[in-house]
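Lab notebook: predicted structure, single chain.

Context: the supervisor wants predicted structures on file for every construct in the current expression panel, including those that have not yet been purified. This is the next one on the list. No modifications to the sequence; it matches the entry in the shared construct table.
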Amino acid sequence: MDRLGALRVTTLGAQAEMALVRRDPVAAPLLAQAARAAGEEVCAALLDQAATLVRVHGVGGEDGPARARRKAAQALVRSASQRAQAVLLGGAPA
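Prediction complete. Output recorded below exactly as produced.
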């Protein structure tokens, strides 16, 4: 992933994470865009898993399993964002 892709992943990841917190259905498309921006990197796999989780199960629900799914998706997004930030800061490739 180049620096521009890393910037896109970081930006879209932050937007998707906020959409998950707000339980906004736009989270899945944002995650899909971030996965495309990541290309064929580990970040893309993490974001794709988060997008699949959100797409299959949705972002709504107050019960424990729904909350756990949102938290799992958020953790995947944070992991991908941290990898992308490492690229931006000149660290190891994502």
